[in-house]
Specification:
Layout: H1 15-20, H2 39-53, H3 59-76, H4 82-95, H5 102-127
Helix pairs in contact: 2-3, 2-5, 3-4, 3-5, 4-5
The structure holds iron/sulfur cluster (SF4).
Length: 140
């Protein structure tokens, strides 16, 4: 689960501390990104991974990861819309809890979390796509 920098002050890097901050220890992997990071490209890359890894057994995961990936690629290409932000969240919410293995939830949570923490970035990119930190080709 993604946290903003201003939510990290005083947080201990253990299960209880991260849970209290609204995240989780997960597999104990931690990625720290500074303000130069293009968060749209980050979440697109994460989603590309889950789209690729989906085995296709469950419809919400099989279709949903692909739809999220497609929409996020639109943002990377500077073609995302304000409606796409809510659509992305809706797709992620419909994947969560509706699949037979944990990959579905694992695909939904980063998207939900990124929109929850950085909705302003999605909206900024939708309104002014030219303001993206760097020109970017769509993630494969
Ligand atoms: S949730 Fe698991 S079982 Fe279902 S399609 Fe995704 S990877 Fe396959």
């Amino acid at each position: 689960m993604i946290l903003r920098g201003d939510q990290l002050a005083g947080v201990t890097m253990d299960a209880d501390g991260l849970k209290a901050a609204g995240s989780s220890v997960g597999t104990a992997g931690l990625i720290v990104m500074d303000e130069t990071t293009d968060l749209i490209r980050v979440i697109t890359r994460i989603t590309a991974f889950y789209h690729h890894e989906s085995c296709g057994q469950c419809t919400p995961c099989r279709e949903g990861t692909g739809w999220m990936h497609k929409i996020l690629n639109r943002f990377v290409a500077g073609q995302g819309t304000m409606a796409d932000v809510d659509l992305l969240l809706d797709i992620a919410n419909n994947i969560e809890g509706n699949t037979i293995c944990a990959l579905g939830d694992a695909a939904a949570w980063p998207v939900q979390s990124m929109i929850r923490r950085f909705r302003d970035e999605f909206e900024r990119r939708a309104v002014a796509p030219a303001a993206a930190p760097q020109p970017a080709a769509a993630e494969a």
